Structures are given as structure tokens and as C-alpha cells.
Amino acid sequence: MAIFINEENKQFHLQGKNISYVFHVMKNGQLGQLYIGKRLRNRTDFSHLSKVEHRVASSYVYEEDPSFSLDLLRQEYPSYGTSDYREPAFQLLQPNGSRISNFTYRSHEVIQGKPQLEGLPATYTEGDEEAETLIINLFDEVTQMGLELMYSMFHKRNVVARSARFINKGEETHKLQRALSTSVDFPNAAYDLVQLSGSWSRERHVHERQLQQGIQSITSTRGTSSSQHNPFLALKRKETTEHQGEAFGFSLLYSGNFLAQVEVDHYENARVSMGINPFDFSWKLGPREAFQTPEVVIAYSDQGMNGLSQTYHDLYQKRLARGQWRDRERPTLINNWEATYFDFNEEKLLSIAEKSNELGIELFVLDDGWFGKRNDDTTSLGDWFVDEEKLPNGLAPLAEKINSMGMMFGLWFEPEMISRESRLFEQHPEWIIHVPKRHPSTGRHQLVLDFSNPEVVDYIYERMAAILSEATIDYVKWDMNRYMTEIGSIAHESDRQMEVPHRYILGVYSLYERLLESFPHVLFESCASGGARFDPGMLYYAPQGWTSDDTDAMERLSIQYGTSMVYPLSSMGAHISAVPNHQVKRMTSLKTRGDVAYFGAFGYELDVTEMAESEQRQIKEQVNWYKEHRELFQYGQFYRLISPFEDDRNETSWMVVSDDKEKAIVGYYQILARPNPGFNRLRLTGLGPDIEYRVEGFEGTYFGDELMQAGLQLESAYNGAQTGGIEESGDFSSQLFVLSKVKQS
To answer: Cα(283)–Cα(275) distance, rounded to whole angstroms?
Structure first.
């Protein structure tokens, strides 16, 4: 049983594998929070966890009870303006101008399994026995507004999935001005805040800071989850490391504007809030209309930050990603973009495909430039018709020729954008996100199509479906290359203009859903100038994403390390590109580039026809080696060993271990060489302590406990020796160690 309910005092105890979440109905009928953390045994009464002392400077709900102040009590979904001065989970603007609400408990129900959220991504179950869901029904008598709070507990996982739904049951129209997905009050603020922040080409770097009084937040107002901040935060105890200690994670399954914040009050209580960004947001709720918030997945770990990450990896890989590609090994691919940019024809594409096929690559992807008159980035977005000057025979013969080689064929789209110089813009200039009489800004010479308008979504679906039906297409790279400006839509009334960013994201989700239903065999990879929309919402539709436009191996160490805080390796597009690297101009060896890219969905972004024979042979070896270990890389358990974000760190290391612990691959990376270093030993983790391992390239055997406690010696790396599988040393060097169980005779 995952949910225990004490009917007498209306206490709710939700249990997962190693997590408990306890709340109750307070004396004013609102919900109060009692506990979140490591699993507790159930008991008949948790009331002692809610006791607070009188404080003179607070306001009180009941004059005769100075201990009942919402300023002092931990709450479950706090409201505005009734003795709690912290920021609320929601705010409802009423016709008379009031913003005061009083949602009180009416009833509850327990559902086996987990309901889906209409029009939104969400985690799911494959059988009702996997989870239980508690729905709390609240009601405000004055506004006649209902509020449903949904909590799903997975029996064998350390997570609780939360969301909220507002239902107007009255005859008046109200406006939601704030509708967050979750709020959690912690009884102290003795935590460090962990966030994933950066910018284009350096997405999801790990940043940590100590909680302080006041509000600390990360947000997006760009129309996407953004490169700048990922919709995730974690609180970890000061003593928590990668593999020891307590941590809580909050991950929002949403791809648009978001808010993730922690407010520390004057009593050192910490309130975590997460959901759609209330900045520039409102939602009109007419009679019998409802609004559903996105889902937040709250995770708990007492096994450090890596334990928290593995909780997310397992859930998102198996119960968020969907479809035919969820559990399939992802193909090795080659993308023509950095090989040709816009300058290609069928002959050039086929020459790259033929050589790639010889090297064992399984999927050829035709990137930007195949449609309209797209010879540079100023034209043709929106004109999803084949450019017959470049491809006079169309896509179908090209795909057939590539298929006949034994390769799959993939195609690039940027469906959400439009160029001024395009047939579609000439026909429908009103279909862009814009405000009448205001100049629309451009980004990358493009404008944003109004996906809040169902007519626009219908048109783009028809064009994409026509292309996907015309040829045998196995893979789609879905790009999105600019943020929103001058946000407005002619499709909606003046009092609904602040709904446009959310309606836009719902339109994107709708298009994905329709395409998946029509073309279930297609592997979708989401991309947004690299990682500008690398979020859990996208994983529900596209099981892998382009992690970053920055393919430099050394930069990817930080990007992939940070991304792994939440996202599994199977979700990270990780490719080898040409050198000097197109983003930072750095020269790194083909070996090092491969050793980094293996830890993800592996591929290439270069012109193999221009490479020396020795490099082509090396690529063939890389591809064959990756295929041999692909299942382990994509679906094994990932462990971070050495962080690139710690002070003066010159190394990064991580490893992946099979579920049965009989195989493991360790990656170790040196950024700059140092003269005459010490004798380093790399301590591994996640192995079977009693399993005897052989380390490829090393003499003898090692037990798991030895490798985890004493470590693996690395000093030969600096000497350029050939032992231990080491082929090179110096700046930007790497080593891989393959461990396998010794089979006993």
C-alpha cells in the first residue's frame, strides 16, 4: 500500500520505495504539510509534526488562537493574503477585484495507477499496480471554484508526482494570475541550492549556492525552458556528496516559461515553488472551464546527488519516454550539417552516405537546406516543399538509395518558425506571434509561428505529414532556433493575450502527439539551438534531444555532466564533429572526441569523405566498438566520479554499470597535462563488491570492493604508456576502462 489515510483527523501519508510525504487538513479546512523525506513507518497520528509556538509579530486566522498563523505553519498549496506573507502557489483575480481565496477540503479519492494530464506530458504507469494516486478536492464557496490536487506515488520509486487543476463551477468568470504546480515547505533552510544554468553552447552547467533569507529563483520568460536555466532545482544537505547524504529534487515536466524558486523566511523555513512562470501570465476561467497545471516530479535520495540522478534517469527513461524507441538501442548516425551546411546536392549526400555505410554508421540525417529556396538562413522556413534544384528527384528516391545501402534515413525540420522571405509568410503574415502596430523583432532572420492558433498547427501538421508520407523517413530532428518576442496572437481576444505562451506550448505538444500517432515508427530528436528546450516535457514526445550545439569534447564534459543530474544517457545526443571545432576552434583527437560522445546517443557531424584513410579506419573501429557496448551506454546505471565544476579540477570522470553489475565502462578525461604528477588512483563505484573483474588492458583481476575502495591506478596515462588501454597523453586526453566479470569455470 502506498497511501495511508487517517479518516478521523484527515491525515494523508504517501509512501514510495524510500520516501514519505505526509500532510493533513488544518482546522481552517486548508491543507498543511507535515513531512517530506526518508520513508517513515505509518502511525495513527502525525499531529505532533505540525506544532508551532506563538509569535507576537504574526497575524492570526482565529483571534482566540494565536498559535494558528499561516505565517508560521507549513502549508501544502498556500494562498495569498490571509496571514501568510510568503509567495503563494496560486492567485485568483475575481470580478470584484479581490485576490483572496479560501480553498477548503471537501473530499478525496484514491485511484489505482496514474491518470494522464489532458494535453500535457506526464509520467505514466504500464499497470495500475505500479502506483496509486490521491486526488484532494478543495472548494471555495465565494468564488464557486474547485481545486483538485493530484499526488501520484510509485511503489518502487522515490518520487511523488504533483499537479493541480482549477475548475470553475460557478457562473462568473475569474482569472488565474498564478497557478504553480507544487509548493513544499521545509522546516529549515540548512540546504545548498543546486541549479543547471548557462547559455547557448554551455547549457546546464552545475551551480551551487547556500540558501539565504529571501527569494532565490531561476526562471524563463523566453517562451521555452531555455538554455539559460533548466526547469530543475535540488536541495542538498551541506554534507551531501555525489554518493552520500540527503537530497531533494524538483523537476518540471514543461517546455515553456517556468519559475523554480526557494523562499527562506524570517524563521529559516524554506518554501520551494515550481510551475508556469506567473510573470506575464493569466488564464481566463469562464463557467465550467478548467485549467490543468504541468506535473512536477519531486524525488528524494539518501544516497547523494548521484542517487537522486539515478532516480530521475530510471523514471524518465522507462515511464516518461514512450513509443517504439523507448527501449530500443538508438542507431549510430551521421548528420550532414557541418559537412555541407546549405551547399549540397543528391550526389554529395549519397557520397557521404556511401562512405558512412562502409564505416558501419546506421542512419543518415539530411539537415537544414532541403526545402523551399533555402540556400542560407534568411529564407524559406515554413515552405515545407522539396527544393527541386538541389534534389530534382525529390526525397523518396534519395531515401530509397540510402535505404538500399542498409541505412535509415532522417530529416531536419524547424516547424515552429517562418522566414519573411517565404511563400507561407506571403500568404499568411498574420500567422506569426506579433502585436499589431508594433514592430516584430527577428532572431536568426526568422519569426515565430503562432502555435497558439490551431489553424497554424493544422497546416504545419499537414505539410509535415505529407513529407513523412512521401519518403521512408525513420528519424526527425525537430529544431527550434529562437525565443519569443512581441508576444501576441490574433487568434485570441484581448483578455486572453497573456495565455498565448502557454497555449503555444500546448500547440507544440499537440503537433508532436498527432505526428507520433500517424508515424509511430519515427524516432524524434528534439533540438532548440542545441539545448534551449532540453526538458522533461520534450522527453515525453522525443526520447532523445540534441544536448548542445557545442560539440567540442572538453566543453561537452561539463555539458553532459550537468545534464546527467536529471536526464539519462539515452536522452543525450552526443556526436563527434570535425576539428578545429566549429564552436571553440579547439583541436582534440578523434579518440578523445569519441570517448566523450560514447556516453550518449552516439553519432557524427562531419564529412567522412574528406577524412584520411587512417581516420576512416578509426571511425569504423569506434562505430563497431560502440555497437558492441551500446546497450550498456544507453541503458546502464550512470555514476559521476570526478566533477569538472569543482575548484581547480583538471579532470572529469564518470562510468556506466550494467544492471547485473557484470560489466562497466569508465571514462577518464584530462584537460591539461601537468609535469611530473603524483600517482593518482581513481576510485570507482556501483560495482559488485564480491565480483571479480578483468580490466581490459591491465594484468590480473580485481574485486569490486578493491576497485571501489583502493581504486584503479592512473599514473601511466601521463607517461604515454600502452598499458591500461591508454593510447595517448597530454592535453585533452582520455582513457576508457572496460570492466567485465571473470567467468568462473
So the answer is: 14
Residue 12 has pLDDT above 70, yes or no: yes
Which amino acid is located at 399 in the chain? A
Sign, Cα dihedral of 411, 412, 416, 417: negative
SS3 content of the chain, % helix, strand, coil (to 5): 20, 30, 45
| Cβ contact 282:176 at 8 Å | yes
Burial class from Cβ neighbours inside 10 Å (0-12, 13-18, 19+) for residue 288 reads exposed
Owner of C-alpha cell 557521404: 352
Considering 302, 387, 549, 550, which one is annotated as catalytic?
Answer: 549
**Catalytic annotation present for 479:** yes
For residue range 398-419, list pLDDT tens digits in order: 999 999 999 999 999 999 999 9
Strands (E), 685-732: 692-695, 702-703, 712-713
Per-residue burial over 568-599, b = 16 or more CB atoms within 10 Å of its CB, e = otherwise? bbbbbbbbbbbbebbbeeeebbbbbbbbbbbb
Q: What are phi and psi of 120, to 5 degrees?
A: -130, 150
Q: Is 549 a catalytic residue?
A: yes
Annotated catalytic residue within 450, 479, 552, 595: 479
What SS3 state is found at 635? helix
Residue 207 belongs to what H/E stretch? strand 202-210
End-to-end CA distance of the chain: 44
How far is residue 438 from each of residues 434, 489, 503, 645, measured CA to CA in Å? Answer: 8, 12, 21, 44
Range 239-255 burial, b when 16+ CB lie within 10 A, else e: ebebbebbbbbbbbbbb
> pTM to 2 decimals?
0.97
